[in-house]
């Protein structure tokens, strides 16, 4: 939620002149994207998003992220298309930072998604998995099992400040996941962060997807578990089985889950819980005292983990395959 | 530079349905406007700005501000036009706050204006004065002499923390202004805050003006002095006589200054300096220690005041009437 970089107007003008999108009409910093600086740019050629990549996104990963968006947009996924400059490149430099221009995506994200929104999100993720299956580049998921252990090492000394016994509980869960994590499920390109913030709804159209900066190569059904956790729990952290059923069924209708994916789903959901529990915990513990910005509450994902630990099979989530 | 209010999507949908602008396509919080929450809104009917008025803008003044924008937009001033809702009203309520929708204005504000930008800003202010002259509503300037004294009373006990002797220097200046402030110059509607942030340039068109929330009824030439102070000093606070000449000449060409306005200009420029010196000083002293957001430096306007104290007549500013 920030604009980090202040772009001098002359630099911006020069940058835009490198594209075939006409002259700039306006440019407003938008309060969106925690990783980058984003601007809503209007030119004679239309409306665009200008993104400046700040430190948190590694420069060497940008060709993967932008390549994925290009691939998806060209295969009927509604997502921002990186615009090529006059040299045919999608990545440029502005204010000493990597920068890119994207087509603007209409749509409204839903903070409180309904059952229907959950179903549409499930179907959208399945379509994305089908299309991104053909994307040829790979990127290891640095937030998978070994990454979780690194995060746990960082958080452990102070984890119990957040909740008594949390450090020990995380260790126990990581041991369980290490022994039970499936290795032979379908692996492909996953979004890995498809929270309601990142899905833009327009009535009567497929929802749009944004923010591909966690995308990587990993288990497709794990991505579905991330989606379920992000969409199907109420503000009081209670699981909403009606939403879960709608989301899983809609996904399955577009990309049918295999039996082994269905069997592994409760374990995947535990992994999807601990992944966000850990990143949120590390962020939470690294905030200086008195800071104005509160990070996401890690305990929301602790509650999800505790729930999934009690789930014996996917039918307990409200959906019968 | 903030979005203060988070608008639930259902409330927003209902609010927009009250207007004849089609369905909402997207809505992004923009990092602009220190007084209000602003959103860039796209609907089937076009692009708009949605403004929610936060505490700092008094509700009872809104009909004046919106009325002025309507008057100006209807008389060929490039400024946001408040859109009427289905009940014919320009002011509604959203999230418990007064809210309005405006036509979107293209254009780029110039942090480092050139001589040409200064001239165009001068001409734009003169056109605004001519058009707003016919606007029938009035609003007293609460940041004129008596307002400055109130601010000085607030700031005095700690003014010397900012600069040794500043409290005494302010008192001396206020005495001078009280004795020398002109009373019989042309008085009309002034913008009172036409900083480079608030002027949007598009090549080949009149620049647009935004942010009318300090507008009031006061001396027109005082508004010109505010403009000169905001546009014609360099980052090191040195006066740029080339910019000053261009700005004053361009204003004069559209609304010729009277002899008494020209004679009073050095005093008006001192008043325009102390007005921003005092509001910035009060803001500066009210920031809690360790806060992340630094307010504008009051000493920038102290330097302007010291400069104008040495100016015997308008010709010392580089312009011969």
Structure description:
Two copies of one chain form a homodimer. The first copy, chain A, is of the alpha+beta class. Chain A folds into two domains: 9-103, 2-Layer Sandwich (Phosphorylase Kinase, domain 1); 115-317, Aminoglycoside 3'-phosphotransferase, Chain: A, domain 2. Helices cover 43% and strands 14% of the residues of chain A. Chain A has nine helices and nine strands. Chain A has helices spanning 9-17, 62-74, 115-132, 145-162, 166-180, 220-231, 241-254, 259-286, 299-308; strands at 24-29, 36-43, 46-53, 92-94, 97-103, 187-190, 199-200, 208-209, 216-219. In chain A, the strands form three sheets. In chain A, strands 1-2-3-5-4 form a five-stranded antiparallel sheet, with helices on one face. In chain A, helix 3 packs antiparallel against helix 6 and helix 5 (166-180) packs antiparallel against helix 8 (259-286). The longest helix of chain A is centred in the C-terminal third of the chain and has 28 residues, at 259-286. The radius of gyration of chain A is 20 Å and the shape is globular. The two termini of chain A are 39 Å apart. Chain A binds chain B through residues 2-3, 8-9, 23-32, 40, 42, 47, 104-112, 200, 202-203, 290, 292, and chain B through 2-3, 8-9, 23-32, 40, 42, 47, 104-112, 200, 202-203, 290, 292.
Helix content of chain A: 40-55%
CATH fold descriptor of the largest domain in chain A: Aminoglycoside 3'-phosphotransferase, Chain: A, domain 2
Morphology of chain A: globular
Oligomer: homodimer
Going by helix content, strand content and strand pairing, the class of chain A is alpha+beta
Strand tally of chain A is 9
- Going across the biggest sheet of chain A, name each strand in turn: 1-2-3-5-4
> What's the CATH H-level superfamily name of the largest domain in chain A?
Aminoglycoside phosphotransferase (APH), C-terminal lobe
